[in-house]
Amino acid sequence: MFVLVSCGVFFPYSGDLSSPRPKRVFVQHITRSFHTRNGSLQSSDSGLCISDMDYTGMQHIKPHIPQINDSIYTYCQDYLPYYGFPRKSWYLPAPEVSPKAPLEFKLLSRQETEWGTIKMSFEVKGPSHMFLELHTHAGASLVSWSLGEGMLQLNRSGEYFIFYSHGLDAPAWNFWFEFQPLKSSYVSPDEDMITLAITAHYFSGSDGHSEPLDSLLKRFPDWAFPSSWISTYHLYRY
C-alpha cells in the first residue's frame, strides 16, 4: 500500500465534503514594477502567479487548465529581493492590476551623518498587508533601523524581511534605515548600495479581485482549493 501511494497510483485529492482532500494553490494577480535610481519606472510586467503547496506540483491541474504548463514555470531570480516571485510558481501573462488604493512609496530624505553612515527615511501608504525586503550591495551594511530593537537578522537569502500589517484608517508607515557604506576604491560610484522591494497584498473588497483572476479560479476542479488575491511588487534602487 505504501509503494502504491508513493508511486501515485491513487488519486490524492477529493472534493467530497465528508472526506475532503483538497489541492492547495495560491493564485496572485500581480503587477511588478522596477524603478531606476531616480525613482522613474524602468520596466513592468503583469500576470497570474500560481504557486502550488504540495509535492505533486501542477500535474493534476494541467488537464483542466492547459495554459498552466512548464513553459510558464518561473525560476528564482536571486538578484531580486524576494526573488521577484515566490520560489515555486507558474506565471501566466495577464493585464495590469489597478487597485483603487495603489501603494504610495516615498524616499523622504537621505542624510550623510558625521560618523560616516547614510540614513535614509521612507514613507509608505498601502493596504493592510505589506512585505518589505531589503538587500545590501557593494559591501554596505545595515547598522541601525527604526523598526524595533535587538539584533538585525538576515534571512537565508541574505535579506532583511519585514512583514507589516495594519487595521483600517491607519496612518502612513514611516521608517528609516542607517547604512555603513564600504570605503573602497574598488566600489564604483554607479553601483547600487541597496535594493528595496515592497509587495502590497490586497485580500478583501473590490481591490482583492479582478476579471482575469476570477475567470481563472472558475476553471479549477472542485477538489482544488485556490486562495487568491491581488498584489503589486515595487523594486527601488539606491
Overview of the structural elements:
- Belongs to the peptidase M28 family.
- It comes from Labeo rohita.
- This is Endoplasmic reticulum metallopeptidase 1.
- Residues 20-236 form the Endoplasmic reticulum metallopeptidase 1-like C-terminal domain.
- The structure is a single chain.
- The protein has 238 residues and is mostly beta strands.
- It has two domains: 22-99 and 203-237, no CATH class; 104-200, Sandwich (Immunoglobulin-like), CATH 2.60.40.
- The chain is built from two helices and twelve strands, in the order αβββββββββββαβ.
- The protein has helices spanning 2-6, 211-217, and strands at residues 23-35, 41-52, 73-74, 89-93, 104-112, 118-125, 129-136, 141-145, 160-165, 173-180, 194-202, 224-237.
- The protein has an eight-stranded mixed sheet.
- The N and C termini lie far apart (57 Å).
- The mean pLDDT is 86.
Distance between the termini: 57 Å
Gross geometry: elongated
Assess the beta-strand content as a share of residues: 35-45%
Low-confidence stretches: none
Total DSSP E strands: 12
Our count of domains comes out at 2
Radius of gyration, in Å, reads: 21 Å
Encode the helix/strand succession as letters.
HEEEEEEEEEEEHE
Strand ordering within the main sheet: 3-4-2-1-12-11-7-9
- The helix tally amounts to 2
User: Quick check: average pLDDT?
Assistant: 86
The major pleated sheet works out as: 8 strands, mixed
Q: Could you say which structural class the secondary elements and strand pairing correspond to?
A: mainly beta
- What share of the residues lie within helices? under 10%
Family: Belongs to the peptidase M28 family.
Protein name: Endoplasmic reticulum metallopeptidase 1
Pfam family, one: ERMP1_C
Domain Endoplasmic reticulum metallopeptidase 1-like C-terminal: 20-236
